[in-house]
Design a protein that fits this description.
By secondary structure, the protein is an alpha+beta fold. It has one helix at residues 61-77, and strands at residues 2-9, 22-29, 40-47, 55-59. It has a four-stranded antiparallel β-sheet. The longest helix is centred in the last third of the chain and has 17 residues, at 61-77. It starts with a strand and ends in a 7-residue tail after the last helix.
């Protein structure tokens, strides 16, 4: 089973050779043999235009919650509402 949740490109301006634009994707999957085929949240981050060369994290529920908290904390640090 594989289900896409969301994907987007980052908001970094074009033309910065030190930090090329990146894209991210979140999906659900149960096709990780090493994970015991348990349902996982998958986070994929890669340079725009360089598909299949990104980093893929297979997060269990605790890892996904920890990432959610870290993003919410970072938003608060910059004065933004973390939302839902």
């Amino acid at each position: 089973m594989r289900r896409s949740i969301d994907d987007a490109a980052d908001a970094h301006p074009d033309g910065d050779e030190d930090k090329p634009p990146a894209s991210w994707m979140v999906q659900l999957t149960d096709d990780c043999d090493a994970c015991g085929n348990e349902l996982r949240v998958v986070l994929n981050v890669e340079d725009v235009g360089a598909s299949r060369f990104g980093v893929v994290a297979h997060l269990d529920a605790a890892g996904a919650r920890r990432l959610r908290v870290a993003l919410a904390d970072a938003l608060r640090e910059v004065g933004e509402d973390p939302g839902r």
